[in-house]
Automatic annotation (TrEMBL):
Boundaries of every SprT-like domain copy: 7-157
Domain of life: Bacteria
Official protein name in the record: SprT protein
Organism: Atopomonas hussainii
UniProt record, GO biological process: response to stress
SMART domains attached to this UniProt entry: SprT (SM00731)
Length: 163
Protein backbone atom coordinates (compact mmCIF):
# COMPACT_ATOMS: atom_id res chain seq x y z
CA UNK A 1 0.00 0.00 0.00
CA UNK A 2 1.53 3.37 -0.98
CA UNK A 3 2.32 5.36 2.14
CA UNK A 4 0.88 8.61 0.71
CA UNK A 5 -2.48 6.95 0.10
CA UNK A 6 -2.62 5.46 3.60
CA UNK A 7 -1.59 8.83 5.08
CA UNK A 8 -4.35 10.64 3.18
CA UNK A 9 -6.97 8.18 4.46
CA UNK A 10 -5.70 8.80 8.00
CA UNK A 11 -5.72 12.58 7.48
CA UNK A 12 -9.35 12.42 6.35
CA UNK A 13 -10.30 10.39 9.40
CA UNK A 14 -8.56 12.81 11.75
CA UNK A 15 -10.39 15.74 10.16
CA UNK A 16 -13.71 13.92 10.56
CA UNK A 17 -12.96 13.04 14.18
CA UNK A 18 -12.06 16.64 14.93
CA UNK A 19 -15.17 17.98 13.17
CA UNK A 20 -17.66 15.53 14.69
CA UNK A 21 -15.85 15.20 18.06
CA UNK A 22 -16.05 11.41 18.00
CA UNK A 23 -13.86 8.50 16.93
CA UNK A 24 -14.37 6.51 13.73
CA UNK A 25 -13.24 2.95 13.06
CA UNK A 26 -10.48 2.86 10.46
CA UNK A 27 -11.19 0.90 7.26
CA UNK A 28 -9.24 -1.80 5.53
CA UNK A 29 -7.66 -0.14 2.48
CA UNK A 30 -6.57 -1.90 -0.69
CA UNK A 31 -5.51 -1.15 -4.24
CA UNK A 32 -7.39 -4.14 -5.64
CA UNK A 33 -9.92 -2.24 -7.77
CA UNK A 34 -9.75 -2.49 -11.56
CA UNK A 35 -11.80 -1.08 -14.39
CA UNK A 36 -13.26 2.40 -14.68
CA UNK A 37 -14.00 3.22 -11.05
CA UNK A 38 -11.36 5.17 -9.14
CA UNK A 39 -12.55 4.00 -5.75
CA UNK A 40 -15.28 2.10 -3.95
CA UNK A 41 -16.40 2.26 -0.33
CA UNK A 42 -17.82 -0.99 1.03
CA UNK A 43 -20.03 0.37 3.80
CA UNK A 44 -20.92 -2.80 5.71
CA UNK A 45 -17.34 -4.12 5.65
CA UNK A 46 -15.76 -0.72 6.45
CA UNK A 47 -13.44 -1.21 3.51
CA UNK A 48 -11.99 1.08 0.82
CA UNK A 49 -10.76 -0.20 -2.53
CA UNK A 50 -8.87 2.05 -4.90
CA UNK A 51 -7.79 1.63 -8.51
CA UNK A 52 -3.98 1.33 -8.57
CA UNK A 53 -3.62 2.30 -12.24
CA UNK A 54 -5.72 5.45 -11.84
CA UNK A 55 -3.87 6.30 -8.62
CA UNK A 56 -0.48 6.05 -10.35
CA UNK A 57 -1.63 8.12 -13.34
CA UNK A 58 -3.41 10.85 -11.34
CA UNK A 59 -1.67 10.79 -7.95
CA UNK A 60 -2.08 14.42 -6.88
CA UNK A 61 -5.76 14.77 -7.77
CA UNK A 62 -6.47 11.23 -6.57
CA UNK A 63 -5.13 12.02 -3.10
CA UNK A 64 -6.89 15.40 -2.98
CA UNK A 65 -10.31 14.31 -4.30
CA UNK A 66 -10.83 10.57 -4.72
CA UNK A 67 -9.60 9.52 -1.27
CA UNK A 68 -11.78 12.08 0.58
CA UNK A 69 -14.72 11.13 -1.69
CA UNK A 70 -14.56 7.47 -0.62
CA UNK A 71 -13.78 8.20 3.03
CA UNK A 72 -16.81 10.54 3.11
CA UNK A 73 -19.01 7.57 2.13
CA UNK A 74 -17.79 5.58 5.14
CA UNK A 75 -18.10 8.55 7.51
CA UNK A 76 -21.63 9.33 6.29
CA UNK A 77 -22.61 5.70 6.73
CA UNK A 78 -21.24 5.58 10.28
CA UNK A 79 -22.97 8.85 11.19
CA UNK A 80 -26.33 8.53 9.44
CA UNK A 81 -26.83 4.83 8.70
CA UNK A 82 -27.63 2.98 5.51
CA UNK A 83 -30.82 4.80 4.52
CA UNK A 84 -29.07 7.85 3.08
CA UNK A 85 -28.43 8.36 -0.63
CA UNK A 86 -24.82 7.66 -1.70
CA UNK A 87 -24.17 11.24 -2.90
CA UNK A 88 -26.95 12.86 -0.92
CA UNK A 89 -26.85 15.95 1.29
CA UNK A 90 -25.11 14.17 4.19
CA UNK A 91 -22.23 13.01 2.00
CA UNK A 92 -22.05 16.41 0.27
CA UNK A 93 -21.83 18.21 3.63
CA UNK A 94 -18.91 16.01 4.69
CA UNK A 95 -17.09 16.69 1.44
CA UNK A 96 -17.60 20.47 1.66
CA UNK A 97 -17.55 21.18 5.40
CA UNK A 98 -15.14 18.57 6.72
CA UNK A 99 -12.74 17.92 3.84
CA UNK A 100 -13.11 21.34 2.11
CA UNK A 101 -13.44 19.58 -1.24
CA UNK A 102 -16.04 19.88 -4.01
CA UNK A 103 -18.80 17.28 -3.78
CA UNK A 104 -18.21 15.76 -7.21
CA UNK A 105 -19.86 12.43 -7.96
CA UNK A 106 -17.59 11.19 -10.73
CA UNK A 107 -13.95 11.39 -11.67
CA UNK A 108 -12.75 12.61 -15.05
CA UNK A 109 -9.61 10.48 -15.26
CA UNK A 110 -8.69 9.09 -18.63
CA UNK A 111 -9.47 5.39 -18.62
CA UNK A 112 -7.98 3.23 -21.36
CA UNK A 113 -10.58 1.04 -22.98
CA UNK A 114 -9.30 -2.44 -23.61
CA UNK A 115 -10.73 -4.39 -26.52
CA UNK A 116 -13.58 -6.67 -25.51
CA UNK A 117 -14.49 -9.96 -27.07
CA UNK A 118 -17.96 -10.13 -28.59
CA UNK A 119 -19.68 -13.36 -29.58
CA UNK A 120 -21.45 -13.30 -32.93
CA UNK A 121 -25.03 -14.61 -33.03
CA UNK A 122 -27.15 -15.15 -36.15
CA UNK A 123 -30.70 -15.78 -37.24
CA UNK A 124 -32.10 -16.46 -40.71
CA UNK A 125 -32.50 -12.83 -41.73
CA UNK A 126 -29.77 -10.64 -40.35
CA UNK A 127 -26.13 -9.80 -40.19
CA UNK A 128 -24.39 -11.29 -37.16
CA UNK A 129 -25.28 -9.61 -33.87
CA UNK A 130 -22.45 -9.14 -31.35
CA UNK A 131 -23.22 -10.36 -27.81
CA UNK A 132 -21.16 -9.34 -24.80
CA UNK A 133 -19.46 -12.02 -22.72
CA UNK A 134 -22.16 -11.56 -20.07
CA UNK A 135 -25.02 -12.10 -22.52
CA UNK A 136 -23.18 -15.04 -24.13
CA UNK A 137 -22.85 -16.63 -20.65
CA UNK A 138 -26.59 -16.19 -20.11
CA UNK A 139 -27.25 -18.11 -23.32
CA UNK A 140 -24.97 -20.89 -22.07
CA UNK A 141 -27.14 -21.05 -18.93
CA UNK A 142 -30.33 -21.39 -20.94
CA UNK A 143 -31.49 -17.86 -21.82
CA UNK A 144 -32.88 -17.37 -25.34
CA UNK A 145 -32.84 -14.25 -27.46
CA UNK A 146 -35.01 -13.60 -30.51
CA UNK A 147 -34.32 -11.53 -33.61
CA UNK A 148 -36.36 -8.33 -33.56
CA UNK A 149 -37.17 -8.64 -37.26
CA UNK A 150 -38.01 -12.32 -37.87
CA UNK A 151 -38.67 -13.33 -34.24
CA UNK A 152 -36.49 -16.44 -34.74
CA UNK A 153 -34.02 -17.55 -32.03
CA UNK A 154 -30.51 -16.17 -32.29
CA UNK A 155 -27.83 -18.87 -32.32
CA UNK A 156 -24.12 -18.59 -31.63
CA UNK A 157 -22.17 -18.73 -34.91
CA UNK A 158 -18.98 -19.98 -33.27
CA UNK A 159 -17.22 -16.73 -34.24
CA UNK A 160 -15.97 -13.88 -32.07
CA UNK A 161 -14.67 -10.39 -32.76
CA UNK A 162 -12.77 -7.72 -30.83
CA UNK A 163 -14.32 -4.29 -30.27
Amino acid sequence: MPEQLQQQVETCYRLAEQHFARPFARPVVSLALRGQKAGVAHLQENKLRFNAALYRANREHFLAQTVPHEVAHLIAHQLFGSRIRPHGPEWQAIMRNVFQRPAERCHSYSVAQRPRTHYLYRCACSEPLPFTAQRHARVAKGSRYLCRRCRQPLAFSGQTCQR
